[in-house]
Amino acid sequence: MDPDLSDLTEQIALDPSQFIGIPLALVGAVFLSLGAQFQHRGVVKVEARTVDSLGKGLNGRQLALLLARPSWVLGTLMLGLAIVFQLSSLYFAPIIVVQPLGAIALVITAIVNSRVANVRLNRKTISAIAMCVGGVFLFVGVAAFTAVDKPVTDAQLITILVILAAVLVAAGVAFVLFRRSIRAIFYVILAGVLYGFVATLAKVVLGRIEQGEFEWLTLLCVIGLLAATALGAYFVQNAHASGPPDLVIAGLTVVDPIVAVVIGIVVLGEASQAPWWAIGVFVLAGVIAVWGVFQLARNHPQTRV
After folding, report:
1. DSSP of 98-144, one letter per residue?
2. Which of 52, 135, 211, 279 could join 289 via S-S bond, C-beta 3.0 to 4.6 A?
């Protein structure tokens, strides 16, 4: 083998087979984008034909009516496919490599929504989207060559579950106390945080099933995963009711991976082999991406209207 090629191979932390997770994550991002667009259309139509609940949360009747909207059902099926591809990508590669790739869905959603809603994206909105995607891909570019996939210990898993329980309680309390003054960005951030835990727990469950270790702790993971998914899905529908679909996707594809990545780095040690400068890049990229989400919420034409 050529010496230069051998040196490059040694620098790559991922096994070649783990790179399969990257195209799977990209396909999932496409389904995520289209699914969000169809779900948004269904939510908007249901809310327009019922009592306004903007800032108060969709009620039970509205949630039931969503099941009768073909666009919402189609969008939900597409999101289901997105989850399948996301789980497949997590099976092959570390969280901090494939989870942030969902940001490509933001670009697709922004383009599709601007055509469907006949809304021209202004310069500040385009800049915000560029910040979101640029920050995420800067992160992935470094993570792909420094991340390592490690088995999750019982102690690490218990830590994740305790943090998730605290987040679920805090999210529920915040929603009950402030639901009448909540804006789309609140729903987006909370949904993104919850889905970050969903991605982490899904990877853990997949790993334990593969190893034949389905015991009480794995069962708790499944329960936590389902609880976070259900509450996150409710927040997503409310975000659709009070904000444009590309803002919703921005939160899910930026906040979600950042939470999953922080767990991967701090709790799971997936960046244990990363050089000091890589950690600095991770922080900088995360700040850029999150700032982009807030700028998108502030400057998007549909949000301002």
Report:
1. HGGGGGHHHHHHHHHHHHHTT-PPPHHHHHHHHHHHHHHHHHHHHHT
2. 135
